[in-house]
Every structure is written in structure tokens, then in C-alpha cells.
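Project outcomes to date are best conveyed with an example. Our students and postdoctoral researchers have been running inverse folding experiments weekly, and each run begins with a structure described purely in C-alpha cells. The record below, which covers 74 residues, was selected by the lab manager from last quarter's runs and is presented without edits.
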């Protein structure tokens, strides 16, 4: 996983981008897998862009896709 580069207090610690998915690791250690199927292609692509930018991912998840994950990995 790649460390999330936010310069402000963020709930996201790291992420891993796949072709049609993104895994997000939160500060409490939990990892969620979001996929095109679970959250929609547009949302996943937005999450990828925010993750790579290092800004806004936590807010986007909280406001748009918080419960739309495919699985809780750990």
C-alpha cells in the first residue's frame, strides 16, 4: 500500500489502486475494498484521483461512499 500524503489530519493512512478498485487503510488499521461494482465506476475513479492528489479522500468517502465497500479486508 502507498502512504496517503495528506498534510492535514486525515482518517486515511494508505491506499492501493487497482484497475477497477481501490483499497483504503484507515488510521484504526481497518482496510476496505471499494470496487466499480460496489461503489460505481465514477466514484472509484474520483477516489483514485483524490488518493493520488493526497487531499479530500476522507471527506469524499464520508460523504459519498462510506458504506459502499465490497468487503472489509481487515
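After processing, the design step wrote out the following sequence:
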Amino acid at each position: 500500500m502507498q502512504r496517503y500524503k495528506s498534510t492535514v489530519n486525515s482518517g486515511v493512512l494508505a491506499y492501493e489502486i487497482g484497475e477497477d478498485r481501490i483499497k483504503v487503510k484507515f488510521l484504526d488499521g481497518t482496510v476496505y475494498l471499494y470496487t466499480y461494482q460496489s461503489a460505481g465506476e465514477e466514484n472509484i475513479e474520483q477516489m483514485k484521483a483524490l488518493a493520488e492528489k493526497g487531499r479530500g479522500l476522507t471527506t469524499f468517502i464520508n460523504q459519498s461512499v462510506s458504506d459502499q465497500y465490497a468487503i472489509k479486508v481487515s
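Residues 2-72 form one domain. The helical segments are 36-39, 41-53, 57-65. The training component of this project remains on track.
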